[in-house]
């Protein structure tokens, strides 16, 4: 079983190190975040750090690394207060991944890919039309992470659009049926084709334990 | 396309609401966090919020909801400073999910499931023997999230153990080959059977844009 000690991790070559550390936490969500600047420039960028933070109020968080292209996303959210989260599905993986390229703010990723900007219900930020699950988000707060200078940005869900036949009678959204991707590391995309739901767990009775 | 407005989300029945909001952020990582109290009681619990926070230093974060069974995990980490993150694989999904049952601190989930506690290299906290990817973690810092009272806990990777044949020559860990699960919502487990890696993206040239 390969073993990476702390010393070994610190001495790894840069690309090897970021691949290893980015893939060691498990599968990650695959989302496109859509924003629009006050001057009207649209932006859409791939993120793998969108995390469920709580259901009441409904809060999602994601992480920004200040020195990357992600700055357009951050600036637009700070300027306007609104953004969209759109799930990446199998049918547009390549275009979604291409949004990681570093374009200047004046060039919209909607213009250089087949992704389509869509406005719904007068919400300020653009959705990704091709996405099976789209969420309208409003900025809430942010945390500057001391350990590494990243920013955790939290937003509240304003509304959710889900493609037909994905929501079960108990509210569960079937991401496999939506052909939604999960991200492995920096550049791996897996599309689970099936899944199972397990029941709510209670302690086992009659344990022969003292 | 089903639409959930803010008002509708607020008026949803509790179970429907938590299923919807927990599954709307995309696939989540599937991990078991192993801890041991100062008095020697082992604990292992399923978490779906482990997130890559940065590679240099190598930091992973996860979210704790103070009013759940997760408290054993939090108390043990705060008391001892150490914990382990172990990926959940297809072969032990049911046992991993069962660790979500609320057992008292004196009963270890290792005793009531087929999961096996394992100690490696004198690290204080127990690993899960069956897991293909195991990470030794040291507490770094935490953030109290104002929006909902949860806690974001950050730790630094101390070492990583990866099963044979999972690490590519560039450091990428193939989670699909490991049969590692992704979590959908509160109780859905998907195991991607294949995946693709896409290349590093640079802006397209010769764009016909003004």
What does this structure look like?
- Chain A is of the alpha+beta class and 210 residues long.
- Chain A has a single domain (27-190), classed as Roll (Pnp Oxidase, Chain A).
- Helices cover 17% and strands 34% of the residues of chain A.
- In chain A, the strands form three sheets. In chain A, strands 4-3-7-10-11-6-5 form a seven-stranded antiparallel sheet.
- The longest helix of chain A is centred in the first third of the chain and has 10 residues, at 14-23.
- The two termini of chain A are 36 Å apart.
- The mean pLDDT of chain A is 94.
- Chains A and B meet through β1, α2, β2, β5 and β6 of A and β1, α2, β2, β5 and β6 of B.
List the helices and strands and how they pair.
The structure is a homodimer of 210-residue chains.
Chain A: E1 3-4, H1 6-11, H2 14-23, E2 28-29, E3 31-36, E4 42-47, E5 51-55, E6 58-64, H3 71-80, E7 82-87, H4 93-98, H5 109-112, E8 117-118, E9 127-128, E10 133-144, E11 151-162, E12 182-184, E13 188-190, E14 195-197
Shape of chain A: globular
Q: Which architecture of chain A per CATH?
A: Roll
Q: Write the H/E string of chain A, N to C.
A: EHHEEEEEHEHHEEEEEEE
Structural class of chain A: alpha+beta
Distance between the termini of chain A: 36 Å
CATH class of chain A: Mainly Beta
Assign the CATH superfamily of chain A: Electron Transport, Fmn-binding Protein, Chain A
User: What is the mean predicted local confidence, pLDDT of chain A?
Assistant: 94
Main interface pair? A-B, 110 and 110 residues
| Strand order across the largest sheet of chain A | 4-3-7-10-11-6-5
Main β-sheet description of chain A: 7 strands, antiparallel
CATH topology of chain A: Pnp Oxidase, Chain A
* Cα-atom radius of gyration of chain A: 19 Å
Instruction: Estimate what percentage of residues of chain A fall within beta strands.
Output: 25-35%
Q: Please tally the helical runs of chain A, counting DSSP H or I stretches of 4 or more residues.
A: 5
